[in-house]
Every structure is written in structure tokens, then in C-alpha cells.
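User: Before I run my own analysis I want an independent prediction to cross-check against. Here's the chain; please return only the C-alpha cells and, at the end, one sentence I can use as a sanity check.
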Amino acid sequence: MDSETLLARITDYASRPDPYPLYAELRDAGPAVWQADGSCLVGTYHEIAALLHDPRMSALPRVSGEVTHKPPFLRLDDPEHHRLRTLAMRPFGPPHSPGRVESMRGEIDRITAELMESFGEGRQIDVVDDLAYPLPVSVICRLLGVPREDESLFRGWSDALVESADVRPGQDTPDTAKAGDQARIEMGGYLLNLAAQRRGDPRDDMLSAFANEPDPSLRLTDEELAETAVLLFIAGHETTVNLIANGVLTLLRRPEHVDQLLREPELLPQAVEELLRYEPPVHMRERVPLTDIDVAGTTIPEGTSVVLALASGNRDPKRFAEPDRFDPTRPDNQHFGFGNGIHLCFGAPLARLEAQSALRALLPHLRTARLVEDPPPYRQNAMLRGPRHLRVQG
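Assistant: C-alpha cells:
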């Protein structure tokens, strides 16, 4: 088929279980490949890395219609991106220090242990519903200061937001966008109200830190606080759900590596890095050039939608030896699992801890477990790719 249909074929739900042959086709077609909808698709490692570091590439997507709210800093450019990201990072602790995330290690392991109580020999469990989703949600809610009884409110909001953030040519609908906007308003309103309750009555959580910032120059406005808190929630769990679920699926398909990690548990952090390369939770990001740019001899005009296929770059044979082989001992593994450049995922340390905790607890069970359905049903989202359910017979 024509290379101009690659993005449409990659984002087609039928390709969700295995988009990697299409990524190989993309790389063969060239570093920058024009699509029928006028966008440009980039799938080679070195070109993606250069564009992610290029200040001429804007994170602000093309929009139609009226913009009703300020985007989260994930979709802003410097200097505003840097200002808001720096303020959002302050409650995590000083740079280059263990900080709040590292202090959560024991709590993450305790939450994992509680969730693992439902796992047992001979029982069927859903890795997504029983562990991969509730673990990061519980962790981020406790970091933010959300009461445990309110954690259930966030699933519907989160699903609507993720659905509206997809990269699917011709498939976005006004209803999807409207539902995403409504979820953002409701979640932001809830978190802003919670922060207001903590103003003058702080607790050991991030909303309290935001609400009680003593320096006016470092204080978020209400709109910024709401958008930042929503972003922290989404970034703090959505990628981790996919990382854990994709990781379990990968290991169940390769029992030799389950045995290897049980024999050599010190390899687990390295194995998580390889999972981030091999089956990344985020497959694509959109950027828009602020001026005409050149990508390997192709001129991309200002304002063009450029889709960076991060998952394709992770399998580029010009960067990784035997890229289609899962290797928990792979050296020099500078993947795009958490993006790159100024928008590198600031929740990456938390996601790594959660994935390591979940896989460490699951590994003894994976030795005898089997997949109930392979491939499993996937989520609709092509950008945030992962199983919607992952049923396993213990």
C-alpha cells in the first residue's frame, strides 16, 4: 500500500496488537514521510531525537475552533513551559535529591502487596484491572492528597481525557473532544477545591504544597494549579498502566526471561528499561514547526503537523542491534519510552519504581501463569498503546 496511508494504517484499531511491521515500512519509506492528510510522519531514531531537541518544534498542536482553556505545560513551549514545569516539580524535592518520589518506595511496595492479595494459584485475574491500573492511581492520589474514598472518581475522567488526546486521523469526533474537555473541567475543579481546603491547613501532599506556597512569585494561579494537578494525575498513572501491562504480556510470551529475572533479580531495573524500548507506553507525539525545517533533505513547512513515531525509533536498526529482540541485558539503552528533550516525562522516576515493584511481585506467579487471550483486547488509543484487559490464569 502507499506510504501516504501509513499513519492511518498504524492508528487503525486492527493494527493495535502489532504495529511494528508498519513501523518497519515507515523507516524503509524514509526519515520523513508525507501523509494523505497533509501531516508528516517521522519514524527513524536520529531524526526523532533531533526534532525532540529542536527549539523550532512547538509542542502546541494545531487547533480548530475556540480555545477555552490554557493547555497544560506538556503542550507549551519555553519559556512558559520551563516556568510551569519548574513550579510543578518543586514539591517533588530539590533537583538531584531523592525527594518525594524516592520516599514513596516503601509505600509503593505496600500498595503492590495489598493488590497482590487477590492473586493466587488457579485463579484468573485481570492484570490491568487488578494491578496495572489501581497501583499507579493509588500512588498518584496519595502523592496529590486525594482521599482514598474518592479514588474511584478518577477512572471515568481519565478515560475521557485519554480518549480525546489520541492521534487518529479522521477519527476524532466533536463528542470525544467535548467529553475530554468536560472531564478536564470536572477533574480540575475537584482538585482545585481540594487544594483550597488545604490552604492554611496543609498536609504532607503536593496539593498542600501548591496551595501554601509562601512566595507569590512561585505561586500557581487557580487555572495553572488545576491544569497542573490534572496533568500530574494523567502523567502519573496512564503511562505506568501501559508499562506494567505491556511488560507482563511481553514476559508471559517469553518464559525464559521470567526464569532469568527470577534467577537474577538485580536485572529488573535494566529489564524495565528494555520494556520501555521494546513495548513503550507512548507510541507517538505531535509537534509543529515554527519555521520551515529540513529533515534529512525533506523541507517541512511551518505549521505542518509532524507526528514523531517514538515506538518506531525504538526499533530502528541504525540505533539498536537486533531491535526486534527483547533483551533484558541490553546496554546503552537510550530509548524514547519517556520521550526526550525538554518534554521528557517528569513522572519517569515514579513510573520506574511502580513498574519494578509490580513486576517483582508478579514474577513468581508468571512462572506458571498463562494468557487467557493472546492477543488481548487493546485500548482504542493508538498514541498511548496498551491492553484494555490482560486476563491471566494463575
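Sanity check: The chain has 16 helices and ten strands.
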